[in-house]
Design goal:
homoheptamer, 6-stranded antiparallel sheet, protein-folding chaperone binding (chains A, B, C, D, E, F, G), mainly beta, about 5% helix, 1 helix, about 50% strand
Chain lengths: ~90, ~90, ~90, ~90, ~90, ~90, ~90
């Protein structure tokens, strides 16, 4: 991918329903913050962001749970991605 | 559990009514912040979160009181969990 | 008590009317912030909370004045307690 | 007085009209923030409050001007006092 | 003057119309923040205020422009003064 | 260009539709934050901005994705530009 | 000019239409933040402002773009000026 997120941002691609089922997580539609599952496709360099040292804890290929309303959606080569800050990622699913 | 929370987040599983009774705590339904009891099932690594050094004070198996409206609910293998920050945990019940 | 508050939190038990009278403080019902008197029953370890070093200045047995709307109420073995941060305690009554 | 304010808090007792007249200050009733005069009756230890080092600049007996809506009112042995932070005191009247 | 402002506060006395004319500044009544001219009559010690080191840059006798809605008005020996923070002073008129 | 942005600001020029198509990114009109693509035409010096050390990570010529509502629009020699902070740039498209 | 701005403030004088045309910048009236052009006529000393070290990056004579709604307008010897913080200046036009 040739999109390089700045600072502590990452680019993620949402997982389809069958992928979620395989990893055993169901995210209920009535959830308060509407979390979703996604795969990390690009990771920013981290470093000093807003005057705070940020170490990137996720890497490309990680499957993660994130808050649905976080970030900015873009479409690239016909695929939808979301650019968001690492802080909006709740957990890695291994 | 294969959910690995990031930063100062933890994964908890709410305790059922009989478990609460056994540990002697009743959380009144008319409480202002509606605290609940839960068991810790996964703990993030802590470290520098939002530029502040966070030391994790809870561990897997701890029974805790937390504010009901904190965090994000997920369902995994048919069980409901909540991902929240350690700061939203009020106390450990020993 | 087997409730161990985290960080800079304390557990308090509100004082009854006769106890307040004995210590000579009357908290007027029309007060703007509705302060109340309570006794400290458990004290968190303090330490670094939200990136700030907090030293606990209250101890179990202290009678304190606190702001009525602060904290979270719980019921334990039939008794009501409040979990709140040390910063919500205004003064110790000696 | 056996009320010991915590952190950077102080306990003050409002001055009566004749006392204000003697010290030569009239606080107009239509003032925007409604300042008032009071005498300091107890002073907290200062130290690190909310992660900031606070040095107490007022002492018991000081006559001060403070913002009327600051702090919490309590009644002790039939006398009304206010507990407020040193930062809500505007000036010392000498 | 026997009013000693605390921290980074100063006491100012508003200038009358003729004084403003002499110094050549007219403050338009329709201005957005309604600045006014005043003379400094007392200066706090500065030092650490809200955890930040503040150096006082104004001195008694300085004529200054300040934002009209800043500070607290008091009346002393029949004269009106305003207590405000140095940060609410925009400029010194020399 | 003779516009020199201050601090951590940059000047950008929005890319036309054909340019976006070439780089393969389509930004959907119904997007929540309405990101857009632009080219960097001037970069501020960075340094200490609002008390935080900011290192500039973009350079003139970079194609970037930014949030549509960020910044201030100006017109220079008949061309529209936007001045915004580096923090409002989400990613570089390479 | 005998107006000496405090801290990180500067005094600016708005440029007339013909001056803007000469420097080639047109600021559209429908712009979101309504930027304007001005010339710097006085510069504060900078230094520690609100606990942050501020280095002044503009000097007397600089032509700058600033946000129209920032600052406080004053009239001096019949001329209108604006006092604003350096942070409200977007760019220098050279």
């Amino acid at each position: 991918m040739n999109i390089k997120p700045l600072g502590d941002r990452v680019v993620i691609k949402k997982l389809e329903a069958e992928e979620k089922t395989k990893s055993g997580i169901v995210l209920p539609s009535q959830a308060k913050e509407q979390p979703q599952m996604a795969e990390i496709v690009a990771v920013g360099p981290g470093g000093v962001v807003d005057g705070k040292e940020i170490k990137m804890e996720v890497k490309v290929g990680d499957k993660v749970i994130f808050s649905k309303y976080a970030g900015t959606e873009i479409k690239y080569d016909g695929v939808e991605y979301t650019i968001l800050r690492q802080n909006d990622i709740l957990a890695i699913v291994e």
